[in-house]
Design a protein that fits this description.
Strand order of the largest sheet: 3-4-6-5-7-2-1-8
Distance between the termini: 30 Å
Helix content: 10-25%
Number of domains: 1
Number of strands: 8
Length: about 230
């Protein structure tokens, strides 16, 4: 028998992975990529399928994102790795601005954020426009994409020349995305919403305390992987 004190000093990501193993039937085998690894840039350079669907269970309901590798190969590969690693489980939609975007992707665990902070990957060329329902990685300039995503609430073609490369599109459940809580508005310092730097360093503890109405992802899974 394992005493509860055994887990007291273990990282949250380790405990979550261990719990998943106990749920498996005897003899079952899964392949979950590391959420935190010594060289995440190299580890995350997994080539994904030509297309796949990410099924998202969120606090307001469920929606599906169809990912197309030929739209943005590097972005598609990164989202494939992150989703299979359970990275987005528990992640808040920290910036939902009406008639613009819903943004998310900063992990609730500061230790995980520290590991991914230097995991930027090269840009893709923009091959599809940022129309309503499409999904892109957020970027702070050339070759700075890491883990943050946004879903377009409207046709945002003005983002195309700024390098926001669409890799997928919400194909079911866009009404769920539309219903995400938007009351906090734009993020700090321009608005009264969450400060991204504090999310990175304090995680969901900060958001739960100061922004309790934010919607969040329960699970995000590639639908042909275990578990669905």
């Amino acid at each position: 028998m394992i005493h509860p004190s055994t887990f007291a000093n273990m990282p949250t990501s380790f405990i979550r992975s261990a719990a998943l193993l106990f749920l498996l039937p005897l003899g079952a085998c899964i392949n979950i990529p590391p959420l935190v690894a010594p060289n995440l840039v190299r580890a995350a350079a997994t080539v994904g399928p030509d297309s796949f669907v990410v099924h998202v269970r969120a606090s307001k309901g469920e929606f599906d994102i169809k990912v197309h590798r030929d739209w943005a190969p590097l972005g598609a590969d990164r989202i494939y790795y992150l989703t299979r690693a359970r990275y987005y489980d528990g992640v808040r939609f920290f910036r939902a601005v009406d008639n613009f975007v819903a943004q998310f992707g900063i992990n609730g665990d500061p230790a995980v954020n520290a590991g991914w902070k230097s995991s930027a990957f090269p840009d893709d060329s923009v091959r599809r426009s940022n129309v309503r329902g499409t999904v892109s990685f957020a970027t702070g300039g050339p070759n700075t994409r890491t883990v943050q995503l946004f879903i377009n609430y409207k046709d945002n073609a003005r983002l195309d020349p700024r390098g926001f490369a669409v890799f997928g599109q919400v194909v079911t459940g866009m009404s769920v995305v539309d219903s995400l809580y938007k009351g906090y508005g734009e993020g700090a310092p321009r608005g009264k919403g969450p400060d991204q730097d504090r999310i990175e360093t304090e995680g969901n503890a900060y958001l739960t305390k100061d922004f309790p109405l934010l919607d969040y992802i329960i699970t995000a899974r590639v639908t042909d992987a275990w578990p669905k």
